[in-house]
Structures are given as C-alpha cells and as structure tokens.
Specification:
2 domains; single chain; 47% helix; Serine Threonine Protein Phosphatase 5, Tetratricopeptide repeat
Length: 294
C-alpha cells in the first residue's frame, strides 16, 4: 500500500517469484507464483524503512508544535526550562524522501498503511497542540506544578527581552527628577507634555537611583509628592514616611523589620524623610526612633 510501485492485490499474481520466473514457473527459493523468502525479507526491510521515515517526520512536527505551543501557552515554563529557550528542542534530521518499494513485492495485510499512519499522527499532533490550551481554558483547571526534581534555573541563562517602545531621552528624565525636588510648575508642565515621565528614574552613579517622588520625599515637598501621587507615581516607604502615613510605615516594618535601615536615594536614611515631613509626620518619627540602628 506504500507508493505507486507496489502492485495492487492480485495484480499480475503469479508472474514473479524471487528469481523472476515468469508464467508461474517456480523460482529458485520460492513456490510457484509466490514471493520467495528473499522477496519477503526485502519487503519487510522496505516497510521498516518507511515506518522510520514517517515516524521521524512526525517527531519533527511534534517538536516544532511543542515549541510553538510553549511560546503561546507556556512562555514562563520555556524561560524556566533548564534548556536554552532560544533552542528548546534538539534538531531532528530525517530522510528527505521515503524509500522506494520494490516492484513485485506487495506488503501483506499486517503492514501499516500510509493513510492510517498519517491520520493517527494528525490526531496526535492536534491533541499535543490543543491539549494544554484547552485545559487552561477550563474553569478550575490549572497547569501542573513543576516537578520537584526539575533542575534549578541556570544563573547564566537569562533571556534578553526587547524594549516594548522607544526609551525616553535620559536628559529629559534627569530634568524631570531634578524638578521633582523643588519645582512644582516645571513638574506639571513636563507631565502635561509627557505623562510617561511620572516614574522615570535617573542613576546618579553607582546605582544611586532616584525618581521625582524620591526627590520630593527627602526634600520635604509635600505639595510635589501629593501631585505626583495623584498622577500615578509609585508610592514607596520613603514618601510615606515624609507624608506622615504611619499605618503604611508600620505595616512595611512589620513585614520587613530591616527596612528601617535601608537607605533611600543618596543614602538618606528613612528616619530623615520622616523628619523632613514636619509636624504631619511626627507620629512616623516617634515610631521609627526606637527602631533605627545607630
């Protein structure tokens, strides 16, 4: 059933034996009108080569689909995989074309048909591709947790993520952060021109990062800090301390006690931010004093 070179069942029956005898004459090592032992062996060999060929190509398709499925449904797993996410699967080399069947040696009924093999392979491919996505779509169905025996991530294997949009000019970010220290009109003007500046940070050197809100916090500029927070600035404990948000400060210290000793921008301590808050931050200052390591 593989290839056009195979004779149909019953076609030219009896014309070929193993030795090529015609007219039903007995071959050297086979019965009259039949296929000899050598012919059967050759047919079996060709059949096995075809099975290997189709299995190899199905495996290649499966690996490609698994890779594509991972990029859609399971990107996190691909990143956490111990394999290189840029080449998560080893390439599979397959024969370019299936072996040509020998004329005169029909496959027996036990041979696998190409149609049956491809249909069953297609079902397997569809199941492999859709299975996980459908499972994730079911309410209450979650992906299995990673195996406890899985290898830990490689410290040197960190994927490179591309920027989503063009970066804001560093000079503009720097000017906005400086304005956040003391110039509310400039802050308002720059945010009206580019609202995305709101959480821009500048590195003053050696990892000394600062935002406009950070500048307002250690300068005690409540008006600027509140304006920035109203325009989606990210609140941190330093701004909370200056603004007198004692409940926020207490909750942060309860969760992470050492946070009272973590320095802010320019290595300014948390308690100094509370001092800059004046009378409205007195409760924060009173709370922090006994906790700060001298």
């Amino acid at each position: 059933m593989f290839g056009d070179g195979l004779l149909r069942d019953g076609e030219r029956a009896g014309q070929f034996g193993d030795g090529g005898g015609a007219g039903g004459e007995p071959a050297d090592d086979g019965p009259a009108g039949g296929v000899g032992e050598r012919g059967k062996s050759e047919a079996k060999s060709i059949h096995n080569q075809m099975v290997v060929y189709y299995r190899c190509h199905v495996k290649r398709l499966l690996l490609q689909i698994f890779e594509f499925r991972s990029s859609i449904f399971d990107y996190q797993d691909a990143v956490l995989s111990p394999q290189d996410p840029t080449q998560p699967f080893s390439p599979v080399e397959c024969p370019i074309s299936p072996p040509a069947p020998a004329v005169g040696f029909p496959m027996n009924n036990a041979s696998i048909s190409r149609k049956t093999f491809l249909v069953s392979s297609g079902v397997a491919l569809a199941g492999a591709f859709l299975g996980r996505g459908l499972a994730q779509a079911q309410p209450g169905v979650t992906s299995p947790a990673p195996s406890a025996s899985a290898s830990p991530p490689d410290a040197d294997n960190v994927p490179d993520f591309p920027e989503h949009d063009p970066q804001i000019d560093r000079a503009r970010v720097k000017r906005f952060v400086i304005a956040g220290h003391s110039n509310l009109p400039a802050v308002k003007k720059m945010l009206s021109e580019n609202p995305n500046l709101i959480n821009g940070a500048i590195d003053w050197g050696n990892g000394d990062f600062e935002t406009a809100l950070g500048g307002a916090a250690h300068m005690g500029r409540r008006d600027i800090a509140e304006y920035l927070l109203e325009h989606n600035a990210r609140l941190d404990i330093f701004a909370a301390a200056m603004l007198g948000k004692v409940d926020i400060v207490k909750a942060a210290v309860a969760a992470f006690p050492n946070i009272v000793n973590v320095p802010g921008p320019h290595k300014i301590p948390l308690i100094v931010h509370a001092q800059k808050g004046g009378a409205q931050a007195a409760a924060v200052l009173e709370f922090l004093r006994p906790l700060v390591t001298r």
